[in-house]
Amino acid sequence: MRLIDRLLRELPFSLGELAVLVRSAPYRYKVYEIPKRQPGQFRTIAQPSAEIKVIQRWLMENILKSLPVHRAATAYREGISIADHAKRHAKRKFLLKMDFKDFFPSITFDDVRKHLIKHKRFTDEEARLVSHLVCWRDKSQREYCLSIGAPSSPLLSNTLMYEFDKKMMAICKESKVIYSRYADDLAFSTNHRDVLRSIESSVKNVCKELDYPRLKVNPKKTVSVSRAHRKVLVGLVLTPEGAISLGREKKRLLRAKLHRFSTGALVEDEVSSLRGELAFAWSVEPSFIASLLVSFGVRVFRELELPFELE
Length: 311
Known about the structure:
Blueprint: H1 3-10, H2 15-24, E1 29-35, E2 42-48, H3 50-62, H4 82-87, E3 94-99, H5 103-106, H6 109-120, H7 124-134, E4 136-138, E5 143-145, H8 153-160, H9 162-175, E6 178-182, E7 185-190, H10 195-209, E8 223-226, E9 231-233, E10 236-238, E11 244-245, H11 248-262, H12 268-284, H13 286-296, H14 298-304
Antiparallel strand pairs: 1-2, 3-7, 3-8, 4-5, 6-7, 9-10, 10-11
Helix pairs in contact: 6-7, 9-10, 11-12, 12-13
């Protein structure tokens, strides 16, 4: 059955409505900016309309989720967290961190089209249809690309990086280096001094060799550290003992927020945020949660209705 016929049969749109949505999909985005951590810098968010989100989620469930994702990828995957990304490198002496410039916008309509033809054996017409439905028109770049804000972008970015991950994993295995990727954050670690210098060059070479996507390393974010210095990866501290930690400042803030909750000083939005932060802390450093239990008592934690079991 043709893809367009499946869309008609399984989605709540008439032929006329679907035709309009398909034709106008890359333009049905609400665009706004949010500040980055660096002063004066902003990140462009483009969220598709409700109708396009419905189509993208259908595509994710019925088409995109069967596309290959390499085991080096640790973001946007069920059962794998940011803590898993950090844990892979915690016991190594030397760490190299790199990332890509404008990661999602670097993945274009043509990249998605090529990937679908290669891995789903789609016709060019079908691949173009899907690419049209998952890309937005970035007016500043005059390009159709993935957006930060579309539900399909994270999954697509992971599968579009499959060849990159595969090539880097082979290089790292030969060099006895651990490699993992959390979205656009690349991490490499080893116990052998000076090995990571060649890995940095390898990343740039692999980017040049790829048929798609065309990625550029952000040199400002390339950092190499050893166990002699404080190692931080995706916001988590890699301790000298080979464990991962939230870090002193995050623990201090979380303890203070929990104290405010215990005195009834938090509003509902802050309580919801606290639940999420405590759940994350449990996944990263359960011993810290145990210390909070001792300090605040089980009753306070039960009032929060946390999504993990208290011992």
